[in-house]
Specification:
binds succinic acid; Rossmann fold; eight-stranded mixed sheet; globular; 2 domains
Length: 334
Amino acid sequence: MQAGSIVVLGTGGTIAGRSIDALDNIGYTAAQLGIESLTASVPGLGEAKLLLTEQVSQIDSKDMGFAVWRLLAQRVTHFLARDEVKGLVITHGTDTLEETAFFVSLVCRPVKPVVLTCAMRPASSLQADGPQNLRDAVCVARWPGAGGVVVVCAGRIHAARDVQKVHPYRLDAFDSGDAGVIGHVEEGRLRLMREWPFDKQGRAQVAPESIAAESLAQSLPDPAHWPRVEIVMNYAGADGRLVEALVAQGVRGLVVAGTGNGSLHVDLEQALLSPQAAGVRVVRASRCVAGQVLAKAGDKLPDSAGLTPVKARIALLLELMQKDRDGDQSADVS
Ligand code: SIN
Protein backbone atom coordinates (compact mmCIF):
# COMPACT_ATOMS: atom_id res chain seq x y z
CA MET A 1 0.00 0.00 0.00
CA GLN A 2 1.32 3.46 -0.89
CA ALA A 3 1.40 6.47 1.41
CA GLY A 4 -1.79 8.52 1.07
CA SER A 5 -3.99 5.51 0.29
CA ILE A 6 -7.74 5.49 0.74
CA VAL A 7 -9.40 2.25 1.86
CA VAL A 8 -12.96 1.62 0.69
CA LEU A 9 -14.97 -0.81 2.81
CA GLY A 10 -18.19 -2.24 1.35
CA THR A 11 -21.16 -3.17 3.54
CA GLY A 12 -23.99 -3.46 0.98
CA GLY A 13 -27.01 -1.18 0.53
CA THR A 14 -28.78 0.28 -2.48
CA ILE A 15 -25.47 1.61 -3.77
CA ALA A 16 -24.69 -2.07 -4.45
CA GLY A 17 -28.27 -2.88 -5.46
CA ARG A 18 -29.62 -4.18 -8.76
CA SER A 19 -32.99 -4.62 -10.41
CA ILE A 20 -33.84 -6.20 -13.76
CA ASP A 21 -35.45 -2.99 -15.01
CA ALA A 22 -33.41 0.25 -15.20
CA LEU A 23 -36.64 2.20 -14.65
CA ASP A 24 -37.45 0.41 -11.39
CA ASN A 25 -36.14 2.39 -8.44
CA ILE A 26 -38.04 0.62 -5.68
CA GLY A 27 -38.40 -3.04 -6.67
CA TYR A 28 -34.68 -3.84 -6.60
CA THR A 29 -32.53 -6.03 -4.39
CA ALA A 30 -29.95 -4.22 -2.28
CA ALA A 31 -26.40 -5.49 -1.70
CA GLN A 32 -25.69 -7.35 -4.96
CA LEU A 33 -22.50 -5.82 -6.34
CA GLY A 34 -19.12 -6.22 -4.69
CA ILE A 35 -17.07 -3.23 -3.58
CA GLU A 36 -14.58 -3.72 -6.42
CA SER A 37 -17.34 -3.38 -9.03
CA LEU A 38 -18.55 -0.22 -7.28
CA THR A 39 -15.15 1.46 -7.35
CA ALA A 40 -14.65 0.27 -10.95
CA SER A 41 -17.87 2.07 -11.93
CA VAL A 42 -16.39 5.45 -11.01
CA PRO A 43 -14.22 6.82 -13.82
CA GLY A 44 -10.65 7.25 -12.62
CA LEU A 45 -11.22 5.48 -9.30
CA GLY A 46 -10.98 1.78 -10.16
CA GLU A 47 -7.51 2.10 -11.60
CA ALA A 48 -6.22 4.48 -8.93
CA LYS A 49 -3.19 2.92 -7.25
CA LEU A 50 -3.97 4.69 -4.02
CA LEU A 51 -7.12 2.71 -3.38
CA LEU A 52 -7.66 -0.54 -1.51
CA THR A 53 -11.04 -2.24 -1.18
CA GLU A 54 -12.47 -4.75 1.27
CA GLN A 55 -15.94 -6.28 1.54
CA VAL A 56 -16.90 -6.22 5.22
CA SER A 57 -20.51 -7.35 4.73
CA GLN A 58 -23.10 -7.53 1.96
CA ILE A 59 -26.46 -6.61 3.49
CA ASP A 60 -29.49 -4.37 3.16
CA SER A 61 -28.85 -1.93 5.99
CA LYS A 62 -32.32 -2.47 7.44
CA ASP A 63 -30.75 -5.75 8.60
CA MET A 64 -27.73 -4.08 10.22
CA GLY A 65 -26.80 -5.67 13.53
CA PHE A 66 -24.19 -5.81 16.24
CA ALA A 67 -22.01 -8.49 14.59
CA VAL A 68 -21.43 -6.34 11.49
CA TRP A 69 -20.92 -3.23 13.62
CA ARG A 70 -18.25 -4.97 15.66
CA LEU A 71 -16.43 -6.28 12.58
CA LEU A 72 -16.67 -2.90 10.87
CA ALA A 73 -15.25 -1.10 13.93
CA GLN A 74 -12.37 -3.58 14.02
CA ARG A 75 -11.57 -3.14 10.31
CA VAL A 76 -11.80 0.66 10.56
CA THR A 77 -9.38 0.65 13.50
CA HIS A 78 -7.06 -1.79 11.74
CA PHE A 79 -6.76 0.28 8.57
CA LEU A 80 -6.58 3.68 10.25
CA ALA A 81 -3.63 2.50 12.34
CA ARG A 82 -1.56 2.06 9.15
CA ASP A 83 0.59 5.08 8.37
CA GLU A 84 0.05 4.73 4.61
CA VAL A 85 -3.73 5.12 5.02
CA LYS A 86 -4.92 8.69 4.61
CA GLY A 87 -8.58 7.92 5.22
CA LEU A 88 -11.47 5.50 4.82
CA VAL A 89 -14.67 5.39 2.81
CA ILE A 90 -17.52 3.07 3.79
CA THR A 91 -20.32 2.26 1.36
CA HIS A 92 -23.56 1.61 3.25
CA GLY A 93 -27.33 1.43 2.83
CA THR A 94 -29.16 4.67 3.58
CA ASP A 95 -31.68 3.21 6.03
CA THR A 96 -29.42 2.85 9.07
CA LEU A 97 -26.47 4.86 7.80
CA GLU A 98 -26.83 7.55 10.46
CA GLU A 99 -26.67 4.87 13.17
CA THR A 100 -23.52 3.23 11.80
CA ALA A 101 -21.86 6.62 11.30
CA PHE A 102 -22.57 7.60 14.91
CA PHE A 103 -21.55 4.18 16.23
CA VAL A 104 -18.21 4.30 14.38
CA SER A 105 -17.60 7.86 15.56
CA LEU A 106 -18.05 6.87 19.21
CA VAL A 107 -16.29 3.52 19.10
CA CYS A 108 -13.31 4.29 16.81
CA ARG A 109 -12.72 8.00 17.64
CA PRO A 110 -10.93 8.48 14.31
CA VAL A 111 -8.70 11.49 13.82
CA LYS A 112 -8.30 10.54 10.14
CA PRO A 113 -11.42 10.92 7.95
CA VAL A 114 -13.97 8.11 7.79
CA VAL A 115 -16.54 8.97 5.13
CA LEU A 116 -19.75 6.97 4.80
CA THR A 117 -21.58 7.12 1.52
CA CYS A 118 -24.61 5.51 -0.08
CA ALA A 119 -27.15 5.77 -2.87
CA MET A 120 -30.87 6.27 -3.16
CA ARG A 121 -31.03 4.49 -6.53
CA PRO A 122 -29.68 1.02 -7.31
CA ALA A 123 -26.58 0.66 -9.47
CA SER A 124 -28.78 -0.63 -12.32
CA SER A 125 -30.98 2.49 -12.36
CA LEU A 126 -31.13 5.08 -15.10
CA GLN A 127 -30.65 7.57 -12.26
CA ALA A 128 -27.90 5.73 -10.36
CA ASP A 129 -26.41 8.19 -7.85
CA GLY A 130 -23.92 5.79 -6.25
CA PRO A 131 -20.90 6.43 -8.53
CA GLN A 132 -21.01 10.21 -8.00
CA ASN A 133 -21.54 9.82 -4.25
CA LEU A 134 -18.59 7.43 -4.08
CA ARG A 135 -16.40 9.80 -6.04
CA ASP A 136 -17.41 12.68 -3.74
CA ALA A 137 -16.72 10.55 -0.65
CA VAL A 138 -13.20 9.74 -1.87
CA CYS A 139 -12.61 13.47 -2.53
CA VAL A 140 -13.61 14.23 1.07
CA ALA A 141 -11.42 11.43 2.47
CA ARG A 142 -8.47 12.87 0.51
CA TRP A 143 -9.08 16.46 1.56
CA PRO A 144 -6.25 17.58 3.88
CA GLY A 145 -8.55 19.25 6.45
CA ALA A 146 -10.97 16.33 6.84
CA GLY A 147 -11.18 14.20 10.01
CA GLY A 148 -13.64 12.21 12.09
CA VAL A 149 -16.75 10.50 10.78
CA VAL A 150 -18.86 12.23 8.16
CA VAL A 151 -21.51 11.24 5.65
CA VAL A 152 -21.48 12.30 2.00
CA CYS A 153 -24.65 12.09 -0.08
CA ALA A 154 -25.93 14.18 -3.00
CA GLY A 155 -22.95 16.51 -2.83
CA ARG A 156 -23.48 17.41 0.82
CA ILE A 157 -21.19 16.64 3.77
CA HIS A 158 -22.88 15.87 7.11
CA ALA A 159 -21.38 15.29 10.57
CA ALA A 160 -22.11 11.86 12.07
CA ARG A 161 -23.76 13.40 15.10
CA ASP A 162 -26.13 15.62 13.12
CA VAL A 163 -27.09 13.55 10.10
CA GLN A 164 -30.53 12.00 9.71
CA LYS A 165 -32.32 10.32 6.82
CA VAL A 166 -35.36 12.52 6.26
CA HIS A 167 -36.80 11.29 2.97
CA PRO A 168 -37.58 7.78 1.69
CA TYR A 169 -37.16 8.56 -2.05
CA ARG A 170 -35.41 11.86 -2.82
CA LEU A 171 -31.77 11.57 -3.97
CA ASP A 172 -30.83 14.19 -1.36
CA ALA A 173 -32.34 12.11 1.43
CA PHE A 174 -30.24 13.37 4.38
CA ASP A 175 -30.34 16.46 6.52
CA SER A 176 -28.27 17.87 9.36
CA GLY A 177 -31.09 19.72 11.11
CA ASP A 178 -30.26 22.91 12.98
CA ALA A 179 -26.49 22.30 12.69
CA GLY A 180 -26.59 22.43 8.90
CA VAL A 181 -24.23 20.65 6.55
CA ILE A 182 -20.47 20.92 6.96
CA GLY A 183 -20.19 21.74 3.29
CA HIS A 184 -20.60 20.69 -0.31
CA VAL A 185 -18.57 18.66 -2.77
CA GLU A 186 -18.64 20.32 -6.16
CA GLU A 187 -16.68 19.01 -9.16
CA GLY A 188 -14.16 17.36 -6.87
CA ARG A 189 -13.71 20.44 -4.68
CA LEU A 190 -15.00 21.15 -1.18
CA ARG A 191 -16.92 24.30 -0.29
CA LEU A 192 -17.30 24.49 3.48
CA MET A 193 -20.29 26.12 5.15
CA ARG A 194 -18.83 25.96 8.67
CA GLU A 195 -15.71 24.90 10.49
CA TRP A 196 -14.97 21.17 10.35
CA PRO A 197 -16.74 20.21 13.61
CA PHE A 198 -14.14 18.03 15.33
CA ASP A 199 -11.13 18.62 17.49
CA LYS A 200 -7.81 16.92 16.82
CA GLN A 201 -7.79 14.79 19.97
CA GLY A 202 -10.30 12.03 19.57
CA ARG A 203 -13.16 14.13 18.25
CA ALA A 204 -14.52 15.00 21.68
CA GLN A 205 -17.30 17.19 20.34
CA VAL A 206 -19.29 14.27 18.98
CA ALA A 207 -19.28 12.10 22.08
CA PRO A 208 -21.27 12.26 25.29
CA GLU A 209 -18.88 12.62 28.24
CA SER A 210 -20.09 9.31 29.69
CA ILE A 211 -18.35 7.38 26.91
CA ALA A 212 -14.60 6.73 27.15
CA ALA A 213 -12.38 8.90 24.98
CA GLU A 214 -10.19 6.00 23.86
CA SER A 215 -11.13 3.69 21.01
CA LEU A 216 -13.42 0.89 22.17
CA ALA A 217 -13.25 -1.02 18.89
CA GLN A 218 -10.87 -3.77 20.00
CA SER A 219 -12.67 -4.41 23.29
CA LEU A 220 -16.25 -4.74 22.02
CA PRO A 221 -17.74 -7.89 23.57
CA ASP A 222 -19.39 -10.72 21.68
CA PRO A 223 -22.62 -9.25 20.21
CA ALA A 224 -24.68 -11.76 22.22
CA HIS A 225 -23.55 -9.90 25.34
CA TRP A 226 -24.31 -6.35 24.29
CA PRO A 227 -26.77 -4.74 26.73
CA ARG A 228 -30.35 -4.61 25.58
CA VAL A 229 -31.51 -1.03 25.00
CA GLU A 230 -34.89 -0.36 23.39
CA ILE A 231 -36.80 2.66 22.13
CA VAL A 232 -40.40 3.45 23.08
CA MET A 233 -42.42 6.39 21.83
CA ASN A 234 -44.97 8.81 23.17
CA TYR A 235 -48.16 9.21 21.13
CA ALA A 236 -51.86 9.75 21.69
CA GLY A 237 -53.10 6.88 23.82
CA ALA A 238 -49.62 5.77 24.95
CA ASP A 239 -49.54 3.90 28.24
CA GLY A 240 -47.00 1.95 30.27
CA ARG A 241 -47.66 -1.61 29.08
CA LEU A 242 -44.84 -1.76 26.55
CA VAL A 243 -42.38 -0.51 29.16
CA GLU A 244 -43.58 -3.12 31.65
CA ALA A 245 -43.14 -5.89 29.06
CA LEU A 246 -39.61 -4.74 28.22
CA VAL A 247 -38.62 -4.49 31.87
CA ALA A 248 -40.00 -7.99 32.45
CA GLN A 249 -37.70 -9.17 29.63
CA GLY A 250 -34.66 -7.65 31.33
CA VAL A 251 -34.08 -4.51 29.27
CA ARG A 252 -31.20 -2.47 30.70
CA GLY A 253 -31.78 0.82 28.96
CA LEU A 254 -34.80 2.62 27.55
CA VAL A 255 -34.85 5.61 25.26
CA VAL A 256 -38.21 7.30 25.13
CA ALA A 257 -38.98 9.38 22.04
CA GLY A 258 -41.14 12.03 23.62
CA THR A 259 -43.46 14.45 21.88
CA GLY A 260 -42.25 18.04 21.35
CA ASN A 261 -39.85 19.00 24.13
CA GLY A 262 -39.62 15.37 25.27
CA SER A 263 -43.05 15.42 26.91
CA LEU A 264 -44.65 12.10 27.88
CA HIS A 265 -48.16 10.83 28.51
CA VAL A 266 -48.61 10.75 32.26
CA ASP A 267 -49.10 6.95 32.21
CA LEU A 268 -45.97 6.37 30.13
CA GLU A 269 -43.90 8.62 32.37
CA GLN A 270 -45.22 6.87 35.44
CA ALA A 271 -44.31 3.48 33.97
CA LEU A 272 -40.74 4.66 33.33
CA LEU A 273 -40.09 5.97 36.84
CA SER A 274 -40.04 2.69 38.72
CA PRO A 275 -37.58 0.91 36.37
CA GLN A 276 -35.42 4.03 36.54
CA ALA A 277 -35.46 3.83 40.33
CA ALA A 278 -34.57 0.12 40.06
CA GLY A 279 -31.48 0.86 37.92
CA VAL A 280 -32.74 0.71 34.32
CA ARG A 281 -31.20 3.70 32.51
CA VAL A 282 -33.91 5.86 30.96
CA VAL A 283 -33.18 8.70 28.50
CA ARG A 284 -35.72 11.11 27.06
CA ALA A 285 -35.30 12.28 23.45
CA SER A 286 -37.72 14.05 21.13
CA ARG A 287 -39.53 12.52 18.20
CA CYS A 288 -39.30 15.90 16.40
CA VAL A 289 -37.03 15.75 13.34
CA ALA A 290 -34.98 18.79 14.39
CA GLY A 291 -34.10 20.68 17.55
CA GLN A 292 -33.46 19.11 20.91
CA VAL A 293 -35.08 18.58 24.29
CA LEU A 294 -34.50 21.59 26.54
CA ALA A 295 -34.11 20.48 30.15
CA LYS A 296 -36.19 22.29 32.74
CA ALA A 297 -36.67 22.28 36.50
CA GLY A 298 -38.77 19.35 37.65
CA ASP A 299 -37.82 16.95 34.84
CA LYS A 300 -38.02 13.42 36.20
CA LEU A 301 -36.10 11.76 33.37
CA PRO A 302 -32.76 12.91 31.92
CA ASP A 303 -32.71 14.17 28.33
CA SER A 304 -30.59 12.87 25.45
CA ALA A 305 -28.36 15.96 25.13
CA GLY A 306 -29.60 16.64 21.63
CA LEU A 307 -29.31 13.10 20.31
CA THR A 308 -32.13 11.65 18.25
CA PRO A 309 -33.79 8.52 19.69
CA VAL A 310 -31.72 6.11 17.55
CA LYS A 311 -28.45 7.85 18.40
CA ALA A 312 -29.36 8.16 22.09
CA ARG A 313 -29.86 4.39 22.02
CA ILE A 314 -26.34 3.85 20.65
CA ALA A 315 -24.81 6.19 23.24
CA LEU A 316 -26.67 4.39 26.03
CA LEU A 317 -25.67 0.98 24.68
CA LEU A 318 -22.00 1.96 24.72
CA GLU A 319 -22.28 3.58 28.12
CA LEU A 320 -23.74 0.39 29.61
CA MET A 321 -21.14 -1.73 27.82
CA GLN A 322 -18.40 0.44 29.23
CA LYS A 323 -19.91 0.17 32.71
CA ASP A 324 -19.88 -3.64 32.38
CA ARG A 325 -16.26 -3.57 31.24
CA ASP A 326 -15.19 -1.23 34.06
CA GLY A 327 -17.06 -3.49 36.52
CA ASP A 328 -15.28 -6.58 35.17
CA GLN A 329 -11.93 -4.84 35.45
CA SER A 330 -12.47 -3.78 39.07
CA ALA A 331 -13.63 -7.35 39.88
CA ASP A 332 -10.35 -8.66 38.33
CA VAL A 333 -8.32 -6.34 40.54
CA SER A 334 -10.12 -7.20 43.80
C1 SIN B 1 -30.38 -0.11 2.62
O1 SIN B 1 -30.46 0.70 3.55
O2 SIN B 1 -29.51 -0.99 2.58
C2 SIN B 1 -31.39 -0.09 1.54
C3 SIN B 1 -31.89 1.27 1.25
C4 SIN B 1 -30.84 2.19 0.72
O3 SIN B 1 -29.65 1.95 0.72
O4 SIN B 1 -31.27 3.29 0.24
